[in-house]
Amino acid sequence: MLPRVIADAHSGVLMALEALSAAANSTASSPPSDAALEASLYTHYLVALVVLAVFTLVLLLLDHKCMLQCKPLSPTGWNARFLLPYAACAAADWLQGPYVYALYASYDYSPATIRLLFIMGFTAAMVTGPFTGALADRFGLKRMILLGYCLVYSLACVTKHFRNLPILYLGRFFGGTATSVLFSCFEAWLVAEYAALGMSPATVAVAFSRMYFVNGLMGILMGPLAQVAVDAHPELQQISGALYVFGDITPFDLSSGFLLVGALLVGFMWSEYYKTDAPPADAEGGASKGEAPSEPAATGLRPALEWLVCQPLALLLMVASACTEAAMYSFVIEWTPTLTTPLTSPPHGLIFSAFMVAYMCGSTLVQYFATGESATGAVLLTLICAVGVLAAALITALLAAFDGHASLGATFAMFIAMCAFEMCLGAYFAVVGSVKAKEIPERFRAAVYGTFRIPLNIIVVVIEVLSPSSAWCFGTCAVLLLLASVCFGLVHVGLRTRHTTATSDGKTEAAPLVGR
Fold first, then answer.
1. Which CATH class is domain 73-276?
2. 40-64+300-516 sits in which CATH class?
3. Coil, strand, or helix at residue 278?
4. DSSP 74
5. Which of 107, 220, 428, 447 has its CA 20 to 30 A from that of 162?
6. What is the number of alpha carbons within 13 Å of residue 162 lying toward its C-beta?
7. Closest-CA residue to 205 (of 433, 439, 448)
């Protein structure tokens, strides 16, 4: 009896073990669900964002400039009068960034069609950019911001509600036009206000520093806000015909709200300024009220280009800048489809916020490598672009290896490489302005900068028209950054040669190109 009971118990244990083994094998062989993959990637992105944010915060706290930027502002002070309207307008722009490509994809447009929509935006910026300054000079900076930015950008947001290609193309044209105003008229108003109030250069330098800080901060904060807004109503809802609401449209509606707030603040808090060739002077010899102090007449495009052709270092600088910024704009278009897999859709707002934190981290971190007297901005830019080449090349290699079917690990690796790419962009913009300002005289600067916006946009358009895949696009970005790195390296050699020649002739060189 007892042996039989033992035998039965032994058989039962064996059966249970076989059942557990079968269940374990079944679990191991069955792939995780799409929801589990998305949750896992979301956690990875969130951890990366937190790590980047903590590291950047430590860098900012250690930087004495941050203490100046973060100093409390008086609600009625001059800085607050500029920064509050500017923050609302900048927030409206950043809200749209994470979901432009995602919205077009949710309308079931092909990648080729989406690229054409982006090309329309770049073309609009290229065509209208040269005329933005002239219109602002004639009709007033404040009016240009209210109409050319707040109103036109609001119309661009409205077009996003329509699943209709002609309307979406029109919206991209409006968006490109408004972007030209954002990148020119706000800074011009700040300079005009500073001149009209007779403020010191040190004061306006602080204002510009705070302006860039607020712009970056808005980019970081608006990503999660856009993510929350989309998650509240994730599905597009058709109202009638081509009219849709909710889903990826929600951030654009929020952007319209910020544009309205910005317009009201600009309308009530800012003065109007016009630029004239010879403004009438008051009794003390100053500019009349409502006009910025007069500046020397523009030299024109032809003299500026003639000067540039005779200055190889300045020409190399502008070529390198055009290549770097063309790679940046191509990255802006391609990151969304690159991180979108057949099984998962990325949290666009969270990823965008991580990119902005990485950008701010790069712009802060580069200051710690620019303290030595022998270090020049050109050699820093050479190294920055070289790191950018490695990041773009890694993304290209992963895309080519997995051919659109990247695993969770590969997708996250591409995200990390993109964060490194953004850090390089942040470091680049923190350095390149002072280098170009040293090499290009004020009288030619506007004409030279404006002229090189044209080849920059042409490069982006050509890349997107000819690009058969995201891998090809990132590979082209790597080549552009490699060319930029070589050009910056040649500039560094030229500057060193010029410094040696000046020293041997008994001359002294100006202050270092970059310094803390």
1. mainly alpha
2. mainly alpha
3. coil
4. P
5. 220
6. 14
7. 433
